[in-house]
């Protein structure tokens, strides 16, 4: 006859929380494909919009900082301060004014991506050899042509590095948007945590998030190879 | 307008400062969790980074790890780790934050030792220094500016991400923000704004203070030459 102690021990050994709440479940994926895809879509759209807006703002800012020396400090300083403010605090400071809308998340994401793109573009512009700029000037290039046809193409590796880092960081950061209700896959991560620590949902959304970041990074690598065929030849 | 007024009102209530879950207690919690995470990160990343830099191997691995770590959402680690054997509470939060502190610490430690002028290293060897002596009295002192830079970046980043612990009820100043959101923006908007301002202020102050530490850590001999460091080695090493 089994003693009380051995009964308790065997019951304890038989209890495995992972059976009730596995980290991965095909059932979850099957039953929630629609939810996952909708969250992925929101995540992707927020990321693309944020990086696009940030690039449109940051590249001219970097050119300004490069051309006008006295603006370098202020531009890097202001974007640096914005970058230091935590995402949650930024959303918290924006939400009372802009409301629980996607635009709140978007503003925050753009402000974060700015510094990365400005700094890398500036690095790219500074790495353009002075001899190349001099000979272009000697050949009669004006400031605009010099920028468009010499400096920006040669700074493209820096720009693309900035875009890659900004995109990958933005994908990870979108999840914080859950705070105002628009966090893409972050909604599922936090939602899964809040509804009885639903591991399958947390894990699926996390892996989808990392996958999205890596896929977008790969897409940008391929894009930079396509627009900079000379760069690949040189490094290969 | 009224939201700004509400937040000033909230900040002016002494109870919001001195309550057991008030601003002072939350700030203390925020600081000790962050300090523990940065300490743990340094204990792991610095020896590994310095050693890899000394033997000159693993550069690609460090860069790959730094880049990969950007893709992992902090929110995900903060929700996953408490559900493992670690259980709820500070250890899971500290470990999650430390994992995010490691890449900048590691990258800067590696780069700092790696960037030591090869001629200086050769001179050390020529004087008969052993590998260990070279590391201790040549490479490490020259790497100090990089180590300080990595520490500053990691500490500010950890202070910022510690706010996210509020998502999993993990304490810290973020809790003020999440409580405010819990009340709804009409009732809690002022508290949300006040919390946001407090966190932003804390991080900016920490960044400023650590910048002073970074300057103080620069060896006197290097100060004259005003050597410019990359602002963040973690940014500079991307391909």
Your description of this structure?
The complex is a heterodimer of chains A (236) and B (239). With 236 residues, chain A is mainly α. Helix content of chain A is 83%, strand content 0%. In chain A, helix 4 packs antiparallel against helix 5, helix 5 packs across helix 7 (102-126) and helix 7 crosses helix 9 (143-174). The longest helix of chain A has 35 residues, at 33-67. Chain B contains twelve helices and no strands. Chain B is 78% helix and 0% strand. In chain B, helix 1 (2-12) packs across helix 10 (185-217) and helix 4 (59-71) packs antiparallel against helix 6 (90-114). Chain B is elongated. The N and C termini of chain B lie far apart (47 Å). Chain B has 239 residues and is mostly helical. At the A-B interface, helix 6, helix 7, helix 9, helix 10 and helix 11 of A face helix 4, helix 5, helix 8, helix 9 and helix 10 of B.
Q: Secondary structure elements and their pairing?
A:
The complex is a heterodimer of chains A (236) and B (239).
Chain A: H1 4-14, H2 17-20, H3 26-31, H4 33-67, H5 69-84, H6 87-98, H7 102-126, H8 130-138, H9 143-174, H10 185-194, H11 199-227, H12 229-235
Chain B: H1 2-12, H2 14-18, H3 23-55, H4 59-71, H5 74-80, H6 90-114, H7 118-126, H8 131-162, H9 174-182, H10 185-217, H11 220-225, H12 233-236
Helix pairs in contact in B: 1-10, 3-6, 3-8, 4-6, 6-8, 7-8, 8-10, 9-10
